[in-house]
Structure formats: C-alpha cells, structure tokens
Design brief:
It is a single chain. 36% of the residues lie in helices and 22% in strands. With 216 residues, the protein is α/β, with parallel strands linked by helices. It has one domain: Pyruvate-ferredoxin oxidoreductase, PFOR, domain III (Pyruvate-ferredoxin Oxidoreductase, domain 3, 3-Layer(aba) Sandwich). The protein starts with a strand and ends in a 14-residue tail after the last helix.
Length: 216
C-alpha cells in the first residue's frame, strides 16, 4: 500500500480547482477483476489523475490473488479534498468489477448508495439489481481490436458516470502511463468508454441508484 499527497501550493490546498468534478469530500473506489486485466494500472492512473492533475489528496492500495493471471485482484483508490488519515477503503462509494469472481469476492463493504459498475458480458450475476452493466471487454475487442484496453474503456465510463476525476486529468494521467506508440489506441478506448456512459445516461437507465428490496 502506498499513500501520496499531491498539493502543489497552499492556494490549491485551500480549495480544489473548479474543474474538479468529484462529488464527495472523500470517495473510496475499488477496481476489481482478474490478474492480467490491468486493474492495478487503472487504479494508478486514476490516483495520478486525482493527485497530480485535479489537485486532490490520494491514497492507493492493491492486492493480487495467488495466480499471476486468472485470480481475483483489486486496486483501491481514495480521493479526498482533505489529508487522508486512514488510507484503507472501508465504505466503498464506487465499485467496478470486470469478472464474476471479482464481483463476488470484493462486494462486501459497499455503501448502500454506492455506484456499482460491471462488465456486461463477464459478470452475469451482479451483486445488486441496480448495477450498471456495460460491455467494456466486448467494446475493446470488437470495436478497437484490443481486449487489453478494456480497463481504459472502463475508466472512461466510470469517470463519465460519476465525475470521480475530470476527463482532462484522466487523459493526462493515462497518456503519461501507457507504452509509447499506444497513445492513439488508448485515447480511442477512453473516448469509447465516455460515449458508452453518455449513451447509457441518455437511455434513462441511471435512475434507481437507491437500494431496492432485492438489495436488502
């Protein structure tokens, strides 16, 4: 686990910039999937977007299953407007699951009103009936020709849905981390995720974030 405080000046410490879209003073995010899906990298990109470019305090932790690939793994990012005194996620506000195993393993401590976003093709039984299911892997595979960028598609979608970081900050952090020569592909993946979320919102399916009787 590593913590980081990214505050370039006393002025920025007093008040986040206006473009910072994070809806909460402290937001706990868990990104979960299998080894090889790039969720640890996704968490790092999200943390750097918030800390380096949106001028917020961040903390990040990660864990892997015993398998190099295939086992459940997760990255947790805490984003706050104030110094983070407890850098572990305990009441998760946003949960992204890219596999069924990850959805089953890491859904125990979500807030009742938490955002829950899952891969529509790889998670057949989300932990709640109000989960947002979007085709991250299918889009990366069929539209971009690279299943490996499903994590970036998902980052674009959850940022658009929740405003956890600004789109500008996310793109800067992404392009600073991806291998040289893949910038155009990753920008397309980010844009695909953003469009996916916008289309989902336009469909009116975002209503119902409150718990239902099936979630009790």
């Amino acid at each position: 686990m590593a913590t980081a405080k990214q505050k370039p000046s006393a002025k920025s410490a007093a008040k986040p910039p206006k473009e910072t879209p994070s809806p909460m003073e402290r937001m706990e995010i868990r990104l979960a999937g299998s080894g090889g899906q790039g969720l640890i990298l996704a968490g790092l990109i999200l943390a750097e977007a918030a800390g380096l470019h949106d001028n917020r305090f961040v903390a990040m932790g990660q864990s892997y299953g015993p398998e190099a690939r295939g086992g459940a793994s997760k990255a947790e990012v805490i984003i706050s407007g104030q110094p983070i005194d407890y850098p572990l996620a305990s009441r998760v506000d946003l949960f992204l699951a890219l596999t069924q195993e990850a959805a089953d393993t890491y859904c125990w401590d979500l807030k009742p009103e938490a955002w829950i976003v899952v891969d529509a093709d790889l998670v057949s039984h989300p932990p709640t009936s109000r989960a947002v299911a979007l085709p991250f892997t299918a889009t990366a595979r069929d539209k971009l020709g690279k299943p490996m960028v499903a994590n970036v598609v998902a980052l674009g979608a959850i940022t658009e849905l929740t405003g956890v970081v600004s789109r500008k900050a996310l793109e800067k952090a992404l392009l600073a981390r991806v291998p040289k020569g893949t910038e155009a592909l990753n920008k397309k993946a980010l844009a695909a995720g953003t469009k996916m979320a916008k289309d989902h919102a336009a469909s009116g399916q975002l209503a119902g974030q409150e718990p239902t009787s099936e979630d009790v």
